[in-house]
Specification:
Blueprint (H helix, E strand, L loop, with lengths): L2 E4 L5 H9 L3 E4 L4 H7 L5 E4 L7 H10 L4 E4 L9 H6 L3 E4 L5 H17 L1 H9 L17 E5 L3 H12 L3 E5 L12 E2 L2 H7 L2 E4 L13 H6 L5 E4 L8 H9 L5 E4 L10 H4 L4 E3 L8 H20 L1
Parallel strand pairs: 1-2, 1-3, 3-4, 4-5, 6-7, 6-9, 7-8, 9-10, 10-11, 11-12
Helix pairs in contact: 1-12, 2-3, 5-7
């Protein structure tokens, strides 16, 4: 029987369907020092973001020669040493389509929260305050949205933002074909300098260093906002706090953090930062789609 380990959990309907199809499914998180040995018993490893599949774990897994497939339930595969796994005969797949709309909607939700002080007003009202004059916000209509990276998630955001009356500019290392003519391609620095809202949708840098640091933040308008629902560590958190404290940036929104669970108190308690605990793909619809996409990947692999 083909054995599947879902180390970060999996949608219940997908687990049930796999079991109906005759697969053995174990849902259990293993610490890094235990995971490699466990993979000697497993044909498929399914992970989200918590489990890291690095070279030492792959080395242990390949000794037994059983592990054939690693699936990342989500878009990015930064937590997997993909090239090394595939060099050792282990296929790596992800589910890029399943959570695009969910992440896009969260990014837009943060934009509304920043523009209209929704989170701050909610907290102060629960404290008995009525700060009607304090929370004069801005409209998204007519503002410019700058997208760093123009993959599936960015394209979903762009469609939604256009419907709201926003202008879309973007940058990507690849030429993206088939986009509406109204979307304007620019250099990264031009996007940072011209956007009212900047939303990041790129992988982590290979060296692990922030892509947006003090120099990049300095290019942005002091009235602009930056949103990161992509990867923790893309934005230098200390530089971000400094820019906000010095009024060089109007606000920020973070769903992902350099360390998770997030512990940077300067970030967590900053009044100009809208926060969520890495929930970009955490909708019922996205989880159902991810689960079914994982089932399809497994079925396709073992039918070959």
């Amino acid at each position: 029987m083909i054995k599947i380990l879902a180390s970060d959990g999996m949608e219940k309907a997908a687990v049930a369907l796999l079991r109906e199809k005759g697969y053995e499914v174990e849902e259990q998180f293993y610490a890094p020092e235990e995971l490699g040995a466990k993979l000697a018993e497993v044909d498929v490893l399914v992970v989200r973001s918590a489990t890291k599949v690095r070279k030492p774990i792959i080395d242990e897994a390949k000794k037994a020669g059983k592990l054939q497939l690693v699936i990342r339930g989500g878009v990015g595969v930064d937590n997997i040493d993909v090239a090394y796994a595939e060099e050792n005969g282990i296929k790596v797949r992800n589910t890029p389509k399943a959570s695009s709309d969910s992440v896009a909607e969260l990014a837009l939700g943060h934009m509304f929260a920043l523009a209209r002080y929704i989170a701050a007003a909610n907290v102060t009202m629960k404290n008995g305050e009525w700060n009607k004059k304090k929370y004069e916000g801005i409209e998204l209509a007519g503002k410019t949205l700058g997208l760093i990276g123009m993959g599936r998630i960015s394209q979903s955001i762009a469609r939604k933002a256009t419907a709201l009356g926003m202008n879309v500019i973007y940058t990507d290392i690849f030429e993206i074909k088939g986009l509406p003519e109204s979307y304007k391609s620019m250099s990264r620095d031009e996007v940072l300098a011209n956007a009212d809202f900047v939303s990041l949708h790129i992988p982590a840098a290979k060296d692990g260093k922030p892509v947006i640091g003090a120099a990049e933040l300095a290019l942005m308008k002091p009235t602009a906002y930056i949103i990161n629902t992509a990867r923790g560590g893309l934005v230098d958190e200390d530089a971000l706090v400094e820019a906000l404290d010095n009024n060089k940036l109007a606000g920020a929104a973070l769903d992902v953090f350099a360390e998770e669970p997030a512990k940077n108190e300067k970030v967590l308690k900053h009044s100009k930062i809208s926060l969520t605990p890495h929930i970009g793909g955490s909708t019922k619809e996205a989880q159902a789609r991810i689960g079914m996409e994982i089932v399809d990947i497994i079925e396709d692999h073992f039918k070959k």
